[in-house]
């Protein structure tokens, strides 16, 4: 039976943590271990985690780094002794076949490979709201870089990709899931997308990021006044760390995206990318607006 290490970052997650852990430990036909980093919780999260701690469930703590850096730290510390690795959010619930389904795809790959699936978006009580699909194919690099939006809580990847991820630690990272996806693309890895949902993606008041809808006015305000880490700056880090491994087509795509704010030709390329049916129209046009206002 294959083994998988689940990487879980927690922060004040006491409300839903037991339910999440139970679902992870209930996975079928895969041997599961967990490596958990608590990101400076002030509630009973750490107490809950300690209750599960054993040789297959390891917990460590650190100062508050926020999700992106906390997950990157987990990736850095993950041992290269497992067949597969999965990212995990503290408030979701996994179907019992989540990892089994991922392995079915990933076992086909000999090179770095990343799996993602559709999600069942629910309210805080796990009542269904809608199914969400966001399929990145890695077939059109610049389009995938622009429209990346696959949630990291669905990610499962092989040891080959973990080895590559450990080669370089970015100084700039907008989000860990974008980083993992970008690195896999950079080294010409394989991306598997499963259109069947295998996770309940819970939406609630304390979500750091989620699938909530906002008014057009609020979206425009966030885009125009955005002061966070830009994905294009993170793409420059990918070029630094993995430029020598890129094919010419992939390298050109990362260069266009990294420097579109200074290169009008690159900006026009991004703005002219056509819509594809396998992603959200809302996410697609939001990305285009962010390019227009230099905030992506």
Summarize the structure.
By secondary structure, the protein is an alpha/beta fold. The protein contains 12 helices and 11 strands. The strands form 2 sheets. A 7-stranded mixed β-sheet has the order 3-2-1-4-9-6-10, sandwiched between helices.
How much is the average pLDDT? Answer: 93
Spatial order of strands in the largest sheet: 3-2-1-4-9-6-10
**Estimated structural class:** alpha/beta
Low-confidence stretches: none
Number of strands: 11
Q: What is the radius of gyration computed over CA atoms, rounded to a whole number of angstroms?
A: 19 Å
Distance N to C terminus: 42 Å
Q: What overall form do the CA principal axes indicate?
A: globular
Strand content: 15-25%
Question: Percent range for helical residues?
Answer: 25-40%
Q: Provide the succession of SSEs.
A: EHEHEHEEHEEEHEHHEEHHHHH
DSSP helical segment count: 12
**Major β-sheet annotation:** 7 strands, mixed
Descriptive notes:
By secondary structure, the chain is α/β, with parallel strands linked by helices. It is 39% helix and 18% strand. It contains twelve helices and eleven strands. The strands form two sheets. It has a seven-stranded mixed sheet with strand order 3-2-1-4-9-6-10, with helices on both faces. α1 links the parallel β1 and β2. The longest helix has 12 residues. It is globular. The mean pLDDT is 93.
Write the layout of secondary structure elements.
Layout: E1 3-10, H1 17-25, E2 31-38, H2 45-52, E3 57-61, H3 66-77, E4 84-88, E5 93-94, H4 98-106, E6 113-117, E7 119-122, E8 128-132, H5 141-147, E9 156-158, H6 159-165, H7 176-186, E10 190-194, E11 199-202, H8 216-224, H9 231-242, H10 248-258, H11 264-271, H12 281-292
Parallel strand pairs: 1-2, 1-4, 2-3, 6-10, 7-11
Antiparallel strand pairs: 4-9, 5-11, 6-9, 7-8
Helix pairs in contact: 5-10, 7-9, 9-10
């Amino acid at each position: 039976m294959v083994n998988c290490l689940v990487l879980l970052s927690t922060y004040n997650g006491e409300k839903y943590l037991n339910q999440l852990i139970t679902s992870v430990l209930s996975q079928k036909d895969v041997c599961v271990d967990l490596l958990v980093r608590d990101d400076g919780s002030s509630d009973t999260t750490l107490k809950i985690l300690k209750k599960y701690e054993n040789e297959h469930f390891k917990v460590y703590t650190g100062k508050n780094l926020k999700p992106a850096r906390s997950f990157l730290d987990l990736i850095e510390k993950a041992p290269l002794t497992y067949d597969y690795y999965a990212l995990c959010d503290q408030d979701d619930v996994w179907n019992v076949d989540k990892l089994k389904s991922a392995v079915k795809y990933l076992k086909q790959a000999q090179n770095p490979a990343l799996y993602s699936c559709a999600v069942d978006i629910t309210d805080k009580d796990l009542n269904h709201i809608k199914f969400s699909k966001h399929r990145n194919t890695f077939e059109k690099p610049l389009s995938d870089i622009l429209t990346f939006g696959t949630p990291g809580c669905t990610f499962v990847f092989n040891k080959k990709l973990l080895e590559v991820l450990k080669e370089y630690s970015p100084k700039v990272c907008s989000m860990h899931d974008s980083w993992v996806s970008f690195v896999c693309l950079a080294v010409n890895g394989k991306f598997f997308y499963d259109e069947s949902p295998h996770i309940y993606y819970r939406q609630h008041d304390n979500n750091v990021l989620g699938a909530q809808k906002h008014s057009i006015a609020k979206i425009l305000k966030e885009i125009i006044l955005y002061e966070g880490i830009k994905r294009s700056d993170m793409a420059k880090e990918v070029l630094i760390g993995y430029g020598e491994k890129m094919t010419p087509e992939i390298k050109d795509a990362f260069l266009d995206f990294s420097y579109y704010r200074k290169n009008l030709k690159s900006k026009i390329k991004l703005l002219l990318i056509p819509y594809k049916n396998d992603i959200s129209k809302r996410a697609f046009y939001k990305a285009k607006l962010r390019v227009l206002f230099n905030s992506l």
